[in-house]
Amino acid sequence: MLTFPVGLLALWIFHAFTKQGLVTLLPDDVGRRIPLGKFEFKGLRRFVAVCASMWLGIASHLLWDEFTHRDSWASAHVAFLRIVVMHVNSYSTATIADVLQLISSGVGLGVVIYWIAAAYRHSKPLREASPTRTWRRTLVWLILIALPSVFFGYWRARQHIGPLLWDAGDRIELGMLTVIGAIAITALSITLVGAVERIRQGIATRTALQLTR
């Protein structure tokens, strides 16, 4: 299964580059609370805990997919999941499985937002203040990254859906796919910013060492 090694790779990319991108782009009061430095498993016990957490996430995701996807085994054998709750448009319907998928996605997003807010409230700045990193600077970066991401997500969504009838169902599907695409491109952009910043810091450090010799 590729999901597990991809998860380990994503973990390394997040700690190596994405966190640096967040620190670079977020306002100083927020960015200073994000710990930087080389990620380490710090012993066999933590490595096992990380691996177990990934496998638990993979297993729970696959299990829940059985109840939230129409082409799953559970949806094919449990009539309750196939109950139509509404007609989305002239050619598609929404079933219990579809509703469960939307509800669980919303709950998951809410949990992530709550966790981020709680982490901010209960953490303290870890580095000295930088007067150049303000909310206005973050807003400019957000516009520069988010707008192209939304346009790209919209373009990919239109390609995926094909010709639209532009009824309620088409608008909902287009909106969801646009948001998903925008989030993916934004995350990639933040990671690239982090990689560039790491390279810049490395060059600056080597230059400073050469000057002191």
Question: What distinguishing features does this structure have?
Answer:
single chain, two-stranded antiparallel ribbon, 3% strand, 213 residues
Number of strands: 2
Number of helices: 7
Coarse structural class: mainly alpha
Question: Largest beta sheet, briefly?
Answer: 2 strands, antiparallel
- Average pLDDT taken over every residue: 83
Low-confidence stretches: none
What distance lies between the first and last C-alpha atoms, to the nearest angstrom?
51 Å
Q: Over all CA atoms, what is the radius of gyration?
A: 22 Å
Major sheet: arrangement of strands: 1-2
Q: Portion of residues in helices?
A: over 70%
- Helix and strand sequence: HHHHEEHHH
What percent strand?
under 5%
**Shape call:** globular
